[in-house]
Specification:
Elements lengths: L3 H12 L5 E5 L4 H9 L5 E5 L9 H11 L3 E4 L13 H22 L2 E7 L22 H14 L6 E6 L2 E2 L6 H11 L2 E5 L3 E2 L2 E2 H16 L10 E4 L6 E2 H14 L8 E5 L19 H7 L6 H15 L1
Parallel strand pairs: 1-2, 1-3, 3-4, 4-5, 5-10, 6-9, 7-12
Antiparallel strand pairs: 8-11
Helix pairs in contact: 1-7, 2-7, 3-4, 4-5, 6-8, 8-10
Bound molecules: NADP nicotinamide-adenine-dinucleotide phosphate (NAP).
Length: 317
């Protein structure tokens, strides 16, 4: 039996009936893995990633995408090593910032819609309430600055048909992520020390992939006009927690399933007790009303989605 959320997805997918041609950039990454799984059946998806396709190569990007002439370009490619970006500034800026401009150029040339994924790290995390799309960015890390530059490449262009979707704390199959790190550490160690003074919303890639297709479906339907829907959106799973609470929930899910774990205790610690090269926002929670109003879709809660990830993990093994 389908859940309400699943039937919403089916309804919306059936609205994308005109065999959209989609170019998926960064196609081997974690989010892209799910985009490939959740893409509506009647879409044609074309995959682009390193080493054959380098987003930093303007000529290649514009040439390849102009020849393909996709209806939609979904950009999941990024330099995502947040701490590594502190030392590899130029490469991070090139992929996350400059190269987004090449995608804009290609999208303008073939009148494609560009879906670009961004991050909570463009905020400084000092807000005491959930961030809305119009809040002023103030990135504290090189990664955040480069991702903001990518957003600006879209926002300051002539491109009208675009969605920038900011998300947070992503996990899913096909990538290094916090859930897998905690499962590995909990199997190796009796005690874990996890940061408890950074709060955000874990987001399952399956839900974000669905959100991308909800937005595309909404822009494909005649009412309201698509031009009023394009723009910047916040999307994350509902609810929020600290990294410590997230780790406790991951271990709880694993214990329910009798994973062979060593961990006995998880200790909450402060950010200053676990120094990292890149500064992270203390508050990453998003207000998601704009997304909900545009799509009419529900957003699953982070605990339900964590459970769904474990179920999917079991099904894959
Ligand atoms: N992960 C998170 O927690 C998180 C949170 C908020 C927002 N986001 C955003 O969500 C999006 C997807 O993240 P993700 O975690 O799925 O990323 P990911 O797993 O690191 O995937 C990124 C993909 O882009 C590819 N790529 C890197 N440089 C490229 C280039 N020059 N040309 C073509 N492809 C290139 C990577 O290839 P290689 O692996 O070969 O480098 C990889 O396949 C990104 O925009 C990220 O900023 C992520």
């Amino acid at each position: 039996m389908q859940t309400d959320h699943q039937s919403q997805i089916t309804d919306h997918q059936s609205q994308i009936t005109d065999h959209l041609k989609i170019a998926l950039i960064g196609a081997n990454g974690m989010l892209a893995t799910m985009i490939r799984e959740r893409v509506p059946q009647d879409c044609n998806i074309h995959l682009f990633d390193l080493p054959d396709f380098d987003l930093n190569d303007r000529y290649q990007v514009v040439d390849v995408l102009s020849s393909l002439a996709p209806d939609v370009i979904i950009n999941c490619a990024a330099f995502t090593n947040v701490d590594g970006a502190e030392t590899e500034r130029d490469l991070a800026m090139s992929v996350n910032g400059t190269a987004v401009g090449f995608l804009v150029e290609a999208a303008l040339a073939v009148e494609a819609t560009l879906v670009h994924i961004s991050t909570d790290y463009i905020f400084d995390g000092q807000a005491t309430t959930p961030y809305v799309e119009s809040d002023v960015p103030n990135p504290q890390s090189v990664y955040g600055k480069t991702k903001l530059s990518g957003e600006q490449a879209v926002l300051n262009s002539d491109l009208e048909k675009y969605f920038i979707v900011r998300t947070s704390w992503l996990y899913g199959p096909g990538g290094n992520n916090f859930v897998e790190t905690i499962l590995r550490l909990a199997a190796e160690r009796e005690e874990l020390r996890i940061i408890s003074d950074q709060v955000g919303s874990p987001t399952y890639t399956a839900d974000l992939a669905d959100a991308v297709f909800f937005l595309l479906a909404a822009s494909a339907s005649p009412q309201p006009p698509a031009s009023s829907l394009y723009g910047l959106y916040h999307f994350a799973n509902e609810g929020s927690c600290s990294w410590y609470e997230f780790a406790c929930a991951i271990v709880e899910e694993a214990q329910k399933r009798n994973f062979p774990l060593k961990v006995q205790r998880i200790h909450p610690i402060a950010t200053e007790d676990y120094p990292l090269p890149a500064k992270r926002p203390a508050n990453s929670v998003f207000e998601k009303q704009k997304y909900k109003a545009a799509t009419g879709a529900d957003i699953p809660g982070w605990r339900d989605s964590l459970n769904a990830y474990f179920l999917q993990r079991e099904a894959r093994s």
